[in-house]
Design a protein that fits this description.
Layout: H1 5-29, H2 36-67
Helix pairs in contact: 1-2
Length: 70
């Protein structure tokens, strides 16, 4: 597997920016404006949880593949 850190970083930044703007716009549509900083923090938390879950899933998959367990 070819691992490219720059592509991963760009992907995470784009997800974070998109999610931040989505949260911010969603609050404005509901007429309860939120601070952009709060939306950015919420997006960062959500993305970090998702990336951690993905890392764990890949690690478990690799471990079970090595041990021969399907």
């Amino acid at each position: 597997m070819n691992y490219n850190r720059r592509a991963d970083a760009v992907s995470i930044v784009l997800w974070w920016g998109s999610l931040t703007l989505l949260f911010w716009a969603g609050r404005h549509v509901r007429d309860s404006p939120a601070a952009l900083v709060g939306c950015a923090a919420s997006a960062a938390l959500l993305i970090s949880l998702g990336e951690t879950a993905h890392w764990l899933r890949c690690r478990i998959h690799r471990a079970t593949r090595r041990s021969g367990t399907p």
